[in-house]
Amino acid sequence: MSAPHHSQFSADPAALVEEADAALASIGAAKAAIGRVIYGQETVIERVLVTLLAGGHGLLIGVPGLAKTKLVETLGIVLGLEERRVQFTPDLMPSDILGSEVMDTDAEGRRAFRFVRGPVFAQLLMADEINRASPRTQSALLQAMQEYHVTVAGQRHDLPAPFHVLATQNPLEQEGTYPLPEAQLDRFLLQIDVVYPDREAERRMLFETTGAEEAKPQRVMSGEDLRRMQQLVRRIPVGESVVEAILELVRSARPGTIADKTLGAAIAWGPGPRASQALMLAVRARALLDGRYAPSIDDVLALAEPVLQHRMSLSFAARADGLTVREVIGSLKARLG
Fold first, then answer.
1. Are 162 and 81 in contact (CB under 8 A)?
2. Which residues form the ATPase AAA-3 domain (predicted)?
């Protein structure tokens, strides 16, 4: 990537720094407000905020009871976003998400169709257990995520801005589920693994959530503030070494492109160019979240797993040998240094 490409960022570095400082104060307040309600999930909170600052959608994977739903509700309040939740079930229809046309009759007896909006018309939509719905319903939501509008009865209806989907999936319960196809998984900027809290966090949670007073989230931002920050993220400069690290990492995760033959043979299919775009946006968002004005290679390494793990698959032989996607990504990261 040649130097002139970066000239768009250097128009007014002082203004960028000033804007970043103002954003940082808001982000710090948001993190603190979320942390008062959700305990022991710092990495998850960071990755969800990276997803939203980068303007993307997130896939939260974890067993039930780890406060995934509560996290999304809390985010909606703290960030001042209109939040809706849909529980996905096998009998959920596309119209249950998108909305439908209903026949209205006015006082004179004239009939006309009126569009009743579905829950997708929110700024933050929680799609709970997305893999429980039929492929047809999944694809209706995923199309909305990609195109930011829905078409019902030939009419286009634009979704609100910002518009983010945070979908959840239970990794254990595979009975009666429809796994998301690869092309649809690619729509998610990050896959965020939600793990059990550590002992100290769980201890604090016991007292905070079973007492008479439970912490309530406070609003610290608005949807408009978030949109401004998303624009700012896209203007943060990315150094040449970081761009090279992103390209090296994503391209090495594709079969047949890596010098290490055993590692190459372990990968059945790898991430497309959307993974590089996701990483390019996510490292900028992480730098801003961390109070830095430019991303580093550390950001690339920290976000390699959430960006790549749902965009690649291992060969049958590798899986039979007990190899995991995480281990392969770990080896690819080690090659970056």
1. yes
2. 57-190
> DSSP assignment, residue 169?
E
Collapsing DSSP to helix, strand or coil, 333 comes out as: helix
pLDDT digits (tens, 9 = 90+) for 107-143: 777 888 888 888 999 999 999 999 888 888 998 898 8
- Closest C-alpha among 71, 110, 55, 93 to residue 217: 71
Q: Where are the domains of the chain?
A: 237-337
State how far the alpha carbon of 210 is from the alpha carbons of 56, 166, 202, 218, in Å: 34, 27, 12, 20
pLDDT digits (tens, 9 = 90+) for 308-333: 999 998 989 888 988 889 999 998 89
Q: What whole-number distance in Å separates Cα of residue 82 and Cα of residue 73? A: 10
**Three-state secondary structure readout of 256-311:** CCCCCHHHHHHEEECCCHHHHHHHHHHHHHHHHHCCCCCCCHHHHHHHHHHHHHHH
CATH 1.10.8.80 fits 237-337, yes or no: yes
Residues 6 or more apart from 257 whose CB is under 8 A from it?
Answer: 251, 264, 270
Beta bridge partners of 127: 86, 167
